[in-house]
Structures are given as structure tokens and as C-alpha cells.
Amino acid sequence: MSQDGGGIDLETSLGYLLKEASSALRQAMEAVLRPLGMTVTHYSCLELLAQRPGLSNSELARGAFVTRQSMNVLLQTLERDGYVTRPATAPVGKVLPTRLTPRGRRSLAKATAAVRSVEVRMLGGMTQAEQSSAFTSLQSMIHSLRDDAAGG
Amino acid sequence: MSQDGGGIDLETSLGYLLKEASSALRQAMEAVLRPLGMTVTHYSCLELLAQRPGLSNSELARGAFVTRQSMNVLLQTLERDGYVTRPATAPVGKVLPTRLTPRGRRSLAKATAAVRSVEVRMLGGMTQAEQSSAFTSLQSMIHSLRDDAAGG
DNA sequence: TGACTCATGTCAATATTCTGACATAGATTA
DNA sequence: TAATCTATGTCAGAATATTGACATGAGTCA
């Protein structure tokens, strides 16, 4: 309709569609993770640690797209429940490198399978070429948005 | 690296990239909306009402990707502050059609301009063809994820 | 008409995340 | 060395969103 000068047409807005897709993905992940007693952030943290052992609280926070305060709360729970371990004192600086315990690894294995099924489903209707171009497009969007200068 | 049988390689995962892009967009929107004293959900609600006057609480919730309970709290605040109006009694059923007040429209105008600048920036590095294919890809992902059957 | 199902609006309690703040450790610079 | 800047871990309070629950109204079906 009359998008010019008016509002942002949500029907054709790529930003809105991006949010819609992200929301659908999150909901699908929550659905398969819930039976495992795991939240998305919880899973993200474990998956990050599996791929990059020794990540710090702040690095995990950035990787899971939450604040370091939120990640800190999560890590304390995960540590208490025996999914991860952190040294009592920092080897260097204030950074506490975190690692998965065997229990954490076991827990992650089930979650990864569940999440993989979601991703496979999401990619189901796309050709390899489409996936490839979607990848490039998303990277482009991220790059443009990261060029600080908020006010323009 | 060794993604087979192991974890989900976050470096090459389209799902992770989707979350990354969505997070970057949200952060950029928060940055430009904050000076206006508005949150993203707050803005989304107003924008939805501008395009589809008379939307109900539940419909607004779905459009803004929050629960109807969360939207209800927001609407009560917006109504109290004079940005929207709702009839005291439902014209039909329990549905209360919500509408923007002149004040709500004024407030939205500034926000829309700010958000538009973010979307323009996001699209800056993409050709028209890329935007078009990104749109199709995102729609495909949403469609695949919406095909319920969570567990497979 | 009556029973059933579904969607809605709303209240309450809980959970999650964020903002603000502080002390500390390393790097940078003079 | 000393001052400054940046990044980190963490505590506390506030904002935000969610789950759970209930009553109500509309639609369906017998």
C-alpha cells in the first residue's frame, strides 16, 4: 500500500520477516529442547563450549547474544548442577575459562540431535544454492548493521 | 570442521546466522528507539495499529511476537499514557479493537523515521536481487518451521 | 436447546533478562 | 613508574516476558 512517507510496510519489510523467521526458529527450538529440560540460551552455552573449550563468561555471552550478567547467572546454575566447571581462581587476569564436564557433554549430545532436526527441517524447502545465497545475504545485513553510527 | 556426528558448526549454521542477524537488527533498533523512550515491542505495537487499525490484543501479540499477556500489560500502559484507545465494552465477543490516538500517531511518526533509517542501513550493501532472494529464503524457512510436528 | 471446543481478555506468580554499579586485572601511554 | 583506558566477573535492583489459571463469548454439533 502507501508505504511512501507513511509507516513501514510490515508485509514487505525484510526486517520484519527476519524477526518472524528468527521467532519461528526459536519457538521450534524451544519445543524440542523443552522435553530435555533445556532452554535455548542453555543449549547455546553448551554448544559454544563444545566447539571452543575454555571460553570465558563474557565470550559465551556474546556468542549466545545475551549480556554477560545473564550468562553469569546461567553459568552459576550450570556449574552448580555439574554441567560445566570453572577454576576457582583465574589463571590469567580475571578471565575464568569454562569447560564442559562429561555430564555436560552427555546432556549436550541429546540437545544437539534435537536442534539438528529443527535446522534440517528449516532447510528442507531450500536448494543448496538458496541456502548459500541466504547465508551471504544474512552476513551482509549483519555487516551493515555492525557499522556503528546508530543515528546516521 | 568435524561437524558430522559432532556438534552443530556455528560458523556455518544458517540458524545461528539468522539469530545473529536478528540480534543485530534488534540492537540497532533499540539504539535508535531508546532516545525516543520507546522499546521495540512498544514500537511494533504502534506500527501494527497504524497499518491495521482495530487490531485486538491477541492479534497485536502475535504480530509483535510476544504472548497476549505481555501485550496486554503494554496496552494498559499505552492506554493510560494516551497513545491508544480501547472501548470500555466489546462491540462483539470479548475482542477489544484498539486504535491509535493522535498522540500515538505523532509518537509513531518519529519512531518510524528512526527505524526506517536502520532498515535502509541494513539493506545498504545488498542489491535488489539479493534482497528479493533473501525475502524468498526467509519465507521458505518460516514456512518449513511452521509445518508443526515438532518432534518429527 | 445443551454440551463441547476454541479464542479472547485479564489477573497473579514466576522466570528471565537487562541496566546500573563496583572492584580488579591487563594493556597503553606518557 | 604512574596514569589512563579497556575488559572482565559479579552483585543488586528494575524492567520485561513467560507460564498458569480463570471467566466469558462465539462457533460447532448433536
From TrEMBL, chains A, B:
It holds the Pfam family MarR_2. Residues 11-143 form the HTH marR-type domain. InterPro entries: HTH_MarR-typ, MarR/SlyA-like, WH-like_DNA-bd_sf, WH_DNA-bd_sf. PROSITE patterns: HTH_MARR_2. GO terms for biological process: response to stress. GO terms for molecular function: DNA-binding transcription factor activity. This is MarR family transcriptional regulator.
